[in-house]
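Can anyone check this?
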Amino acid sequence: MRGKHVLGLEYFSPEEIQLVLSTAKEMKTIIHRDIKKVPTLRGKSIVTVFYEPSTRTRTSFETAGKYLGADVVNITAGTSSIVKGESLRDTLLTVEAMGFDAIVMRHKQEGAAEYATKVVNHPVIINAGDGAHAHPSQGLLNLFTLLEHKGHLEGLKVAVLGDILHSRVARSDIWGMRKMGIELHFAGPKTLLPRFLSEEPGIVIHDRIEDAIRDADAIEVLRIQLERQKAGLFPSNREYARIFGINNERLALAKDDVLILHPGPMNKGLEISPYVAYGNNSAIQEQVQNGVAVRMALLTLVLTGGKQA
């Protein structure tokens, strides 16, 4: 995987996904050490370029790079020449000229990461989210969390609930989870279920979330992306929570050891109740830690091929 751009899980083979997950398992041991520093990426330089706000993804990529010994620089839209009107192309050419080995980028426009691969020649591009298209590292950390808890991936039933229309995480789940043999069940308001889902093999669509989560091994609750939505996609927040929110009563329909996932940040009381978010079945905070391990694995594999891991 050395030199491979990370644009979306549609470009990953099942073997490559498994390689990332097995590498992440080794990387997670570094996070638990007293001294969280290894020389794997010593001499490498990484820049994060974020055109949208982020806490978990940007910080975890930065942390991953530093744990591996790389030099990491952060660029955000609000504190750079982007606010002066600098184009994406010029920003990319600028950071390439500075000699960075990898560019981790988030952009509101779908396809921005792929466009970046056509602008720069040397740096590896890692897509940290491009509009509603893809968020590959989040899809991988979801798989890693499932694998750690369940011991296997093939044959699992995963229910994905909520705002699928605007979710890049859902699209990465579709590619990654199906390749690993997971059965996907989607549910949410019809206005938030994209039409392409009905044409995809290995996906079951439900009108009621109760049917989707019944006997599920895991439930991924998606954030209602109010900042991306147009008005009128559902009557009100209260109505959404009543019909489509995951709560204690609905959780009882799934398996006793069902795993609750959420990409964050959470709208507690809307798509998920506080009881479920912080309950015994929740792996939401563990996902954050696993995100660091998975991003350590990605950086190692694309920058060194894993030979120094």
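Reply from J.R.: I decoded it. The radius of gyration is 19 Å.
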